[in-house]
Amino acid sequence: MPMDSPRPRNVVALAGGIGGSRFLRGLLAYLNDEPHQDRPQQADSDAPAVTVIGNTGDDIWIHGLRVCPDLDTVMYTLGGGISEERGWGREAETFTVKEELAEYGVEPTWFGLGDRDIATHLVRTQSLAAGFALSEVTAALCERWQPGVRLLPMSDDRAETHVLVDDPSGATTATGEPARIAMHFQQWWIQYRASLPAHGFPIVGIDQAKPAPGVVEAIAAADLIILPPSNPVVSIGTILAVPGIREALVAASAPIVGLSPIIGQAPVRGMADACLTAIGVPTSASGVAGHYGARSRGGLLDGWLVESSDADQVEAIIELGIACRAVPLLMSSVAATAAMAQTAIELVQTNR
Ligand code: GDP
Ligand code: CA
Questions:
Q1: Closest CA to 218 of 258, 259, 253
Q2: In this structure, which of 16, 151, 184, 352 has its CB flanked by the most CB atoms within 10 Å?
């Protein structure tokens, strides 16, 4: 193994749900593992601090409960409570409440509300009703899960991603055009499996949303910022849309490195291609790199990792002004993901 470069001490990562949390598990394994060669072994209290800025654009009210799917996926994954099989929700989950609700014929029926998971939503909803901010509630929930990161919602304010689609009922306007409606992102994603062509992703409330307390400060104090292979449009894109967050990233002294969520012409899991197509970004590693843009040219990225099989795109990405390497990017195990994190960090440490 080559000489380790110094590991960062203050890391900020933006994250959606499944892709973000799987990456974070590998990142923590790398940061907290093996002592450095260039400094004495550190006590636990001196382990690198990782702040995760989580996407809350997917949040939704379901049956009177406030549900934050991406925050919970990060919390459960890092806290050891996730269903490894599904990648979301709790392990050993049952769905009795969901079945009972369906018996009453109440909508929506498409959201996967598990019995164990409901306890989290009850605590959150009650605490929000008592006047606590989402960031405070999230910190309280994390007391139980001990995710090993500081998990911050992107904002305490409600900012919910919607999707502009042609009305699936087939309704038309007076001139005979398909009528456009905005549906909640979760409905488009889960009920329609992103199959209705999207015309855009308006985020209701985003203009008034402020970064949650600590978000801008964490970005300014970071010595390394990572964009995991989360959905560039409805996970990372939503976080970047909170007024003040993109600006804080552009102004940060830390390098920003990202990992491609696209391998070949497809997202590894999920339907991110439908989101990229809707905003006119090619579904490719270089397409996403170009969408984020080079730091040196007003964009975000100092470095970008693409999959080994996409090595032919490295040159084009370097020409955009972004340091780039092709390495294995399948998060097939924690060890494989830790290696991705290490390479990403070293890419921007050696290129600065
Ligand atoms: P979500 O909120 O649950 O959709 O999760 P994220 O937005 O955090 O991440 C979803 C994205 O992760 C997907 O669009 C995929 O492109 C990406 N992804 C999932 N698994 C892998 C993997 O093994 N390798 C890479 N490079 N990307 C992955
Ligand atoms: Ca999500």
A1: 253
A2: 16
Q: pLDDT per residue over 271-325, tens digit each?
A: 999 999 999 999 999 999 999 999 999 999 999 999 999 999 999 999 999 999 9
pTM above 0.85, yes or no: yes
Same domain, 266 and 316: yes
Ligand 1 centroid, distance to 178 Cα (angstroms)? 32
The domain containing residue 230 runs over which residues? 10-57+207-349
CA 150 / ligand 1 centre spacing (Å): 21
Q: 267-289 burial string, b = 16+ CB within 10 Å, else e? A: bbebbbbbbbbbeebebbbbbbb
Which amino acid residue places its CA nearest to atom 26 of ligand 1?
261
User: What single-letter DSSP state applies at residue 312?
Assistant: G
CA 72 to chain centre: 11
Asked if 76 and 42 touch (Cβ cutoff 8 Å), the reply is no
